[in-house]
Amino acid sequence: MLMVGFSACNKLDYTPSQSLTPEQAFADVQSIQNAVTGCYTFLQGGFENDQGDYAFDIISMPESFSDNAVFVGTFPTRQEFSAFHITTANLTNSGIYDMLYVAAVRTNDVIERINAVKDMEGFTDEMKNSFLSELYTIRAYAYFYLTCYYGNVPLVLDATNNETLEKNNNLPNTPQPQIMDQIEKDLLWADDHIGSGSGGAYVSKAAIEAFLARFYLYNGNYDKAKTYSEEVINTSGASLDPSYDDIFADVTGSHEVLWYVNYNASNSNSIAFYFFSSAMHGRQEVAVRDPEMFGDSTSTDIRKETTIANGDVVYKYRHLDGADPVILFRLGEQYLIAAEAEARAGNFTDADTFLNAIRGRANLTDTTLTASNYLDIILEARRKELAFEMGGFRLLDLRRTGKAVEVLGPLGYVAPKCNLWPFPQADRDANPNLDQNQDY
């Protein structure tokens, strides 16, 4: 983990990167590799906070802000998500916002240092491009969820040093289209330069293209969503696991997982502990809001047994020692992206093929999509297939399709306020140029 200079409590207010020269920081290829690897730890929540709580919150709070989950524990800040009433002083919200920002801005420093390296023995252009591709993808991932959850966030792209610290800490809101343009730019560059190899807990070409498919789906560019999702399906070498349960029972061994955040017993999270009931030796903070989301007792959908235990316990995370890896991208999502993109283009035969591959694995009969039914069927398929995974799928799907008020309104969701979460007041106090989101 790259720790040089990262000593203060503010996400940008640390000993500036300029205090160490590139030669001091990167003496050889291994030190560059260590620095890049260190940036992955920020996706775990590994920065001056309870990593275990962050991992749980980044999964469960978007689900609690939907019809998938409900808060049943004791923390009032988490209750606010479940009640669709997040205050600007909410520390859980602040933890999510700040941790995503840490993941975004710390890549800038390593990018600058790598670009400053000249004539290092064994450091080829191919290595440089691959490392930069990993960093651009991590930065894009963090900014994607920052702008999905918070809207017009400040876009910090410069390394933080003695000259840029004040500017970076006082940037105004950046319009969301500009943020999305930068995310697209980072991902396309990474896709062109990553090369072969990696995967698992590290960025690969398949993971980047899966990200591009998700990115284009959420931005309404369905032709490109189709192109990238089907590229991943056809050329990545990944395949759907025959058993849905096997994906979560052994994430690192799954044939369909494209990128995951790694945890283990010595570098753990609190996900299972906070989902499991006391009878399962946990402290259930969040429960399934609708235990019959997979259908009633007559349903044949086998995903329910993988997703829900004992009526309302989220069961995709099984390890009380905190060793559950967390999936960022997997092939099942790509089949659903391809199905939606083909359906939106009117190619219902192809859409059926992709959707029914997912339904068949779930032990459901084939369905036939039409112009009048495809969106509701695919949204429901995405809800069941991707429930309680990292990515806020249910919430963001309802928002992007204009169905959030219709579905979530009876639970307390109001627009436009609930279309974004509030900027933490502490961040606005530190940055007078940061405007608050509407109605907060």
Main beta sheet: 2 strands, antiparallel
In angstroms, what is the radius of gyration? 21 Å
Order of helices and strands: HHHEHHHHHHHHEHEHEEEHHHHHH
Unreliable sequence segments:
1-9, 13-23
Helix/strand-derived category reads: mainly alpha
Write down the CATH class of the domain at 1-195 and 409-440.
Mainly Alpha
Average pLDDT value?
92
Q: Can you tell me about this structure?
A:
The chain is mostly helical and 440 residues long. It has a domain at 1-195 and 409-440: Serine Threonine Protein Phosphatase 5, Tetratricopeptide repeat, CATH 1.25.40.890. The chain has helices at residues 22-25, 29-44, 51-64, 76-82, 91-116, 125-150, 165-169, 176-193, 205-218, 222-235, 244-249, 271-275, 303-307, 331-344, 348-361, 374-386, 393-400, 404-408, 425-430, and strands at 69-71, 257-261, 286-288, 308-309, 313-314, 326-330. The protein has a two-stranded antiparallel sheet with strand order 1-3. A two-stranded antiparallel sheet has the order 2-6. α6 (125-150) runs antiparallel to α8 (176-193). The two termini are 37 Å apart. The relative contact order is 0.13.
Question: What's this, in brief?
Answer:
By secondary structure, this protein is mainly alpha-helical. The protein has helices spanning 22-25, 29-44, 51-64, 76-82, 91-116, 125-150, 165-169, 176-193, 205-218, 222-235, 244-249, 271-275, 303-307, 331-344, 348-361, 374-386, 393-400, 404-408, 425-430; strands spanning 69-71, 257-261, 286-288, 308-309, 313-314, 326-330.
